[in-house]
Amino acid sequence: MHKKWVSVVKVIIAALLLLMALFPIYWLVGMSIRPMSEMKGHISLIPHALTGEHFLSLFTKNGFGHAIVNSLQTTLISTAISLAIGLCTAYVLARHRFHFGMKKPISFWIMIIRILPPVAFTIPLYTMFSKMGVLNTKVPVILACILINITLIIWYMIGFFAELPEEIEESAKVDGATEWQLFRKIVLPLVAPGIAAIAMLSFMYAWNEYTYSIIFIQSPANNTVPIALAALNTEDNLTNFGLVAAGGVISVIPITLFVIFAQNYLISGLSSGAVKS
Fold this sequence. Notes:
CATH architecture: Orthogonal Bundle
Order of helices and strands: HHHHHHHHHHHH
Strand content: under 5%
Largest sheet: none
Oligomer: single chain
Distance between the termini: 44 Å
CATH class: Mainly Alpha
């Protein structure tokens, strides 16, 4: 009987914690579909009427659609390039294939870049991009996201590659597999859970990147979603909570869909890609 009550208490506590975690999301969605007349004075917990005027205004008057396209371009390109370079580098470092004693210095500098805050690189990157003539385009943001994400991918994936039994790779080599076939067809599927997890983190960072975007992009035509959201907080829109909430809802949809997809792939990878030594 005592164990039963303990279980009931645990369920209640878990439900309360879940409610506390989900309530801000509910409130954000609720504010985005409320008419402005309901946002004056006391605001009820449940909307009395629904409207789509805030979402319509975002795309017709504030050009939010262009910001979403810009963010998708910078995020997908930077994430893809970061994964391609980062996975190869992490595999080489994990397998001790660097000569001339370069592994430790490279690992050290990767860790330094990972530890330092992104704002520490703004001045050298700004100078470099200015001389390259790519300021006020999406190129600096893509390159900056690649710089940050590559270090994260390498630092995270080295452990996954190092835990793989080398006997599997040796067997593949005996069967005639080339280095690229070994990496692409054998090693990568075995570390699929790690790739899914780091892809989620890289996507989230690139999608939410604000510091480099606000510094390197000064043309409204190239604004990303974080900058577009910040631009909504003007004097005219300061009290238009519905408009800002609608922008917040739209901004989390792509990353939510990506996380859901990556989570499903992560679960399948854990069940089908397990390694037994």
